[in-house]
Specification:
123 residues; alpha+beta; 2,3-Dihydroxybiphenyl 1,2-Dioxygenase, domain 1; four-stranded mixed sheet; 2 helices; 16% helix; VOC_core
């Protein structure tokens, strides 16, 4: 039976990634292993960042966070230097970095390693 979700993200430069997640998101790893950082966040959520030369090649969302106040979270992250992506593709157009759907609004940014991270709020 599947129980917990564990996301794994690539990084070309592990120290640079660690600095980004600390400085921009206020997160520090709970475990550091050779070539790997492990973060435990929320209730049972875990994500790992590992060093590899394949980092930055994905063009899709690789990790998502849920928030109760998307605009406030975006403002906090923008103050820390995070830049949100703008999209204008069939079926989705962002306004000030936010795409809205019937029951959800979302925004995307990239970390220093090129990974797409999504923030979403149920509406």
């Amino acid at each position: 039976m599947l129980k917990e979700l564990h996301t794994v993200l690539p990084a070309a430069d592990l120290k640079r990634a660690q600095s980004f997640y600390h400085d921009a998101l206020g997160l520090d790893p709970d475990e550091i292993h050779e070539g790997t950082l492990v973060y435990h966040v929320g209730s049972g959520s875990v994500f790992e960042i590992y060093e590899t030369s394949n980092a930055g090649t994905a063009r899709n969302t690789q990790m998502g966070w849920v928030t109760d106040d998307l605009e406030a979270e975006m403002g906090r992250l923008r103050e820390r230097g995070v830049v949100f992506e703008d999209f204008d593709v069939p079926g989705m157009k962002t306004v000030n970095g936010v795409a809205s759907a019937d029951e959800m609004k979302s925004a995307w940014f990239r970390d220093t390693e090129g990974n797409f991270i999504c923030l979403s709020q149920k509406i």
